Amino acid sequence: MVLHQGDDLKQKTGRPEHDGFVVENIDLGAGYVEFRNGERLYLLAGMAPSRPAVFREQIRQTILRHMRWQAEVASHDEGAFALLH
Hints:
Largest sheet: 3 strands, antiparallel
Radius of gyration: 22 Å
Low-confidence stretches: none
Helix content: 40-55%
Number of helices: 3
Structural class: alpha+beta
């Protein structure tokens, strides 16, 4: 993707997580793009965690949610528990 000063990253990518990222300055010598929100993205550096890290966190959150649900179910009487299984 080619960026120019004033480009709105959200508009260019269509990704809501890029909201507020408008190109303020591109410094090729120093190797970064600076955005109006104060963030700087350096050449060959990422802004977000890797996909595997995101997937691991999603799985972790799913397991935690399931464990909380199991604890809630276990705290109810046997009759309600029998209906759920």
